[in-house]
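Schema walk-through. Below, the input block comes first and the output block second. Nothing else is stored per chain. Lengths vary across the set, and this one has 143 residues.
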Amino acid sequence: MIENERQYAVTKKRIAQFEASLASLRTTSAPTKLPPRLHRAMRESIESQLADLLREVAEYEALKAQQVSTLELHSLSDLPDLLIKARIARGYTQAELARRLRLKPQQIQRYEATRYYAVSFRRLLEIARALEVDVHDTVSLNQ
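--- output ---
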């Protein structure tokens, strides 16, 4: 998941590199040093990684353009990514979110880098409030 503009720029560069590699593999119809199965596996691997990166870029761009108004929470383990996506969709940088919470920007960077691993429940509620996020879901009791 792309979380900020720096990661977005890095991902865009990676996409260009993967596209160049893929173009090179496609134009080489019969590589002299690689068996056909290995050549196909390399091409399919690059295509798969490229598709993943393109999906991440599309998601980040949609969030940045505020085209997303609802994020689905399937389990509590999804909450960290949901909070990061909500921050992006609100148009807040990590520094802006930190300012709203009266924290240092580095603290938000750490929270997001660790996916809010050691954050208290109270702090999660504060972050959700600062992001103006309402979480509505049901709790299922597994039998």
